[in-house]
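Quarterly update from the structural biology core.
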Amino acid sequence: RALESDQPDDLIINIAIGRGDFDKARKMIDKLPDDSHKSQLIENVNAPEAIALAEKGDIDQAVRLAERLNRGTSILRVYPVLLKKCLSAENKWRATPLVYQAIKQLKKADTPLLTPSGIPPGLVVIKGPDPIPLSLSKLAKSVVEVDETLALAVLDETVIASNKSSMDSSEGRIGFDLDVFKQLAPKDEARVHLAAEDLTDHFRQIVALAAINQWKASELEKRSKADLARRKAR
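Predicted structure, tokenized:
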């Protein structure tokens, strides 16, 4: 009954969004005054509708909605889905411009993602004033599943953003998702190593290089175990 009333209530709007009734949600949102709360609700509609359109194959409309996203969490949620849909032959040409559009939006995002993951034990990551490198590193990890060359380009953007950041690393602030170096190293170790060396902050550089060495040590251990198993089999 509440859905039929078209009254702009947050709970009902979210129920409509959850049911995929995006037109109903937009009609209710349109009745609200123009303020930050309305903008947030519009974002709440645009992100899931963009994903739904992408899943249906309507890439053009999905991209138009994605380009309106202002929050880092929304951008990181929607663009990986769009990129995966671009794996088909007729849409591969879209991948590169989509990645750079995502980078552009993340750099201007209102509330980028703030909580990193995959940090090795003993390292403390503290929330800082510049979450852009973190958002870009998260994007790189998502993009690698679609196109490793584009993921490496996003890694370069992450390093550039980190070097521009005013975040102080003296208390263990890294500012990006460290896993990105371990995840991309198998794709192009030399380039990822160079990206780590390009970090101007000494602490961040050491930690990034250590992450790459962690991956290398893990690979060596796997090979050693495989060789031992083969010798035993003989």
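The mean pLDDT is 85.
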